[in-house]
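seq:
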Amino acid sequence: MGGGAVERQDPDKRNWVDWWLPFSYCPMCYYKAMFFFGKKIAKKKVSHFETLSEKWTARHRGIQEKIWEKHQRALQNFKEKSKQFAASSLAGLMLMASPGVAMTSSAAAATAVKEKPFIDLDKSTSLLLDLQSFLPKTVEPLTKEQEQQIGDLLTTRLGATVSAELNGKRLNRSYGNIGQEQHLARYPGDTIDTHFSSGEDAQKYYEYGMAPGLGAYGYFAKSSSMTEEESSREKYYIAVQTFLAPGYLEHTKEMNEFFAYHKMLVVNPDNGKAIVVVIGDAGPAEWTGKSLGGSPEVMKYLERVDGAQKGPVVYFFVDDPNNTIPLGPVEL
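struct:
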């Protein structure tokens, strides 16, 4: 209105031409203006980056909370009892929970989010988390529900039927402490000096010696001209308490025929290592506190060769009627 005070316009809202025109006639003013506007632009960029960083932090915190909520029991078990947890797996978990991952550019960050929003757990760690969520806190017989859950998990991982009970037959338990066993004679005349096919194997396993008697099912082969499978049966054998299996006393012959060299999958729940083995002997005695025993090769692979020479494992039957699954270590 005429005669009134002229309203002062906010400099930030004025047209940029009105601001720029005076500076265009003065070189010193020009450089000052460039410095002023450059600082404002830089400040806006920093502010935008900080906003993006806050969003990433919130997103990763949410992912971390969801993982902990879903696998709290398993992660707690690792903290309390796992001594063999792989460093790479731990690093993967740390990366998932940490928002401070360096990005070389905003384009690279966008691509990373689109293709892979967070680091995948490796197979071994994923197996451990799932397995620990089903296992009891103490080493004790599993319930039918736990056996079913673990059997389904291992069946999916192995690609073949894995179960605690097969053809109506089962052992007294499917989760227990495994102990160290000795080598067994593979054929008549086999000794500890003729037992190994290479100097490397002799160096690793000679010290464990050979059992004075035969395994529960006799020799693994008729002579030294044995097949690779016969040699592998002794190499990857376990001893289980067949004599404590339900119905064993009533159907001893039938059950012995079923148990002899039947394949099983043994998994160390502390490190995820798994191995396909055969039942090659009966034992150990119940008073030992151990539920099964493993050959020196089996124990070494499972990393159950510390001072105690024993530790918990899961052991389930493998249904392999066509004999297509080889014995030895397997990656689940």
